[in-house]
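Tutorial handout. Part one gives the primary structure; part two gives the three-dimensional structure as tokens.
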Amino acid sequence: MSLLRITAILLLGGALFSHGNGAHAQQSREQLARGLPSSNLSGTDVQATQASLLAAPGFARARVASNPAAADATAVGEATCTSCHQLEANHFTHTLHALGLHAASQADASIPVCEACHGPGSRHAQAPFEKGLIIAFTKGGGTPTEVQTATCLNCHKGGPRDHWSGSVHQRNDLSCSDCHNPMANFSAEGFMARNSINDTCAQCHKDVRLQFNRRSHMPLPEGQMSCVDCHNPHGSITNPLLKTNTVNETCYQCHAEKRGPFLFEHAPVRENCLNCHSPHGSNQNTLLVAPVPFLCQQCHTGQRHPNDLHTAQSLATGSTPDERVMGRGCLTCHANIHGSNAPSGPRFHE
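Part two.
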């Protein structure tokens, strides 16, 4: 059968199909409109569903916070609050909390804005200078730290905050507002009280911040990591608030090549990376707590070689130079110090 004849048959079949199914071949404008969703944003069907569209799911369940110090107070509404606190309202307007609470309040008038965090404001409006009548997130505001954190945890519970109770920050009477400021956009994320997570942590941990200025350090000052890459400031099952169960598991998140498994393992390495390394910064090479070979000789003395404790006199400029101290020290030969799969592995040679 020729190509021309096949084409003619196909065209004829298409024409017959179109005549037999006129409704599908060409729809009128009205038929097409009935098959599409409504685009009339002022129509009654859209107005009926407007509340659900603006509900802002993350804020739709916000309620007036409980303030034990003003148990008989009642809600007064955002307009009453902003009549006095105009500056705070201007700062708050552009934050995520403001956008979410306002959207939810537009959909449901019972959802509060200011009072979702600060509690009912009637008593505070009557006596604005009396402390404690409104939930204040400052040290001198008259609200106990427990009430402040409980107010935040009404919405921000679970997840990374599962271990807040009993954590070192909670035991030291820290409030959420010591690290966060939800009333202004000081940081790119997290509503931090300072410009960044690292600057916020450095308010208290000044000694750790100084360690990052040492010759060998984690790339935190360069902006390639932050404190929360290793630590969970809201609580952890470990005392240093590590995000994992052990120091080694935390280090393996980046240094996976040191994880193994190895046929021949170095016991101090398996026990804890901090046996040899300083986690934040060091004046020794590769974050070591002491220079090689002196670091190695903290454990390896009087065994095979060296049988003498090396000192500065063993350096090239010393009175008794020793080749085992030159260059990379012990690591010149024992290069696979974290573990080895080589046939000569027990001694961690290359």
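Part three, for discussion. The CA atoms of residues 91 and 339 lie 55 Å apart. The two ends are 75 Å apart (CA to CA).
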